[in-house]
Amino acid sequence: MSASFPTDLIRKDVADLPTYNAGLALDQFKAKYGVDCLAKLDSNESPLGPSPRAVQAMQKAAAGVWRYPDAGNAGLRAKIAEQANTTSENVIFGNGSEDLIGALFRATIRPNDHVVTICPSFGLHEFGAMMFGATVTKVPFNADWSFPVAGLCDALKSKPRVLIFSSPSNPAGPAISEQEFRTILAAADPATLVCFDEAYVEFIAPDQQFDALAILAETGHPGLILRTFSKAFGLAGVRVGYGVATDTQLITAMMKTRNPFGVNALAVAAASEAIDDTAHLARVVAQATSERDRVAAALSAKGFVCAPSQANFVFFDTGAPASVLVEKLRTKGVLIKAWQEAPYENWARVTIGSPDENDIFLNAL
After folding, report:
1. Backbone angles phi, psi at 133, to 5 degrees
2. H helices of 34-111, where?
3. pLDDT tens digits for 60-84?
């Protein structure tokens, strides 16, 4: 840092934030460790990649990139609205769902507001609120990795500004049931905004999925459902996520706090085709869920304790600081993620890759 840089220029709320634990890029991996990455299993990416139709759509759209994209993403908004049984005015797109988490907090959080989430959790659910001076209560999962319904209901007695959590949970993997979701909503104050992050919803068994948006609307709670094209749809590199709200007023506000051109033209073209290619999505989900169960069983056979996952990853207890194991695996060309959130520093998250990648990981382990 320059000696002349003003010490109080950066807001303390921002200076005190932890650094987001992003995955390691492949070129950086090779430069640092001097070996090829044989299994990149740290960022929950799809080993089958995107739908070929999505790739073709991006190639076609590339000819028009000299024009600004539609700031309102009208065509894609209409398609999502139809699927969600709502109107386009209730839908918003962003540069990944992380972009929308930021837009949501910018629109709603004031200094000293209170936010409730779960633990362990997706870091931006916590950091994004802290950035604006909010205090965050993190409710830990139950010992058996069931959702902490009683703990969340107790935390909601404080009437927080926002309740935000994911299901299936990232990084742990459990999914909340419809009845548990309804129980939590019944405990929430009518003025508490409920943000339900469904980034991994496609991997939940069909008989355990439910329409969270309809339930939020039915119960009268202000709510936002978040989804992404980065995981099951294999479009992590182009960055496109979306939110569906129970009230147009929230979307109107978030459109003001989001970048005006939040999604690039290639991403919109890819997402529009990806969501229509249901056959490709089915292949992704079938492989991920089958391999997830196989990897979890193999880890258990090796003596590791695993959280029950309904996503495309497995969270397991390494029995010691996970960062040590992760570094050793990197020397063997395997990338997984050591969790850095207390008290889960002994836990690691491994993405479910291709069968070959998963075997490489298990053999290296």
Report:
1. 85, 15
2. 52-61, 74-84, 97-108
3. 999 999 999 988 899 999 999 999 9
Domain ranges, residue 322: 12-49+278-364
7 lies in some domain: no
pTM over 0.85: yes
| Structural domains of the chain, count | 2
- 37 and 153 in a common domain: no
SS3 assignment, position 314:
strand
Q: Does 348 lie in the same domain as 235?
A: no
Whose tokens are 């939040």? That residue is: 262
Of 76, 51, 4, the C-alpha closest to 234 is 51
Contact 235, 270 (CB under 8 A): yes
**To which H or E segment does residue 259 belong?**
none
Domain-terminating residue out of 256, 274, 292: 274
3-state secondary structure 136-187: EEEEECCCCCCCCHHHHHHHHHHCCCEEEEECCCCCCCCCCCHHHHHHHHHH
Rounded distance, CA 35 to CA 24, Å?
A: 14
**331 Cβ contact partners less than 8 Å away, ≥ 6 residues apart:** 33, 35
240 and 114, same structural domain? Answer: yes
Q: How many residues comprise the chain?
A: 365
Judge whether 350 and 336 are in contact, CB under 8 Å.
yes
CA distance 251 to 234: 26
Rounded Cα distance between 130 and 135, Å, is: 6
In eight-state DSSP terms, residue 172 is T
* Domain limit, last residue, from 222, 248, 274: 274
Nearest in space to 183 (alpha carbons), one of 213, 154, 153: 153
Chain segment 253-277, per-residue pLDDT in tens: 999 999 888 899 999 999 999 999 9
User: Which residues have CB under 8 Å from 107's CB, separation 6+?
Assistant: 250, 253, 254, 256, 257
Strand partners, 244: 91, 225
125 CB-near residues (< 8 Å, 6+ apart): 101, 117, 164, 165, 166, 197
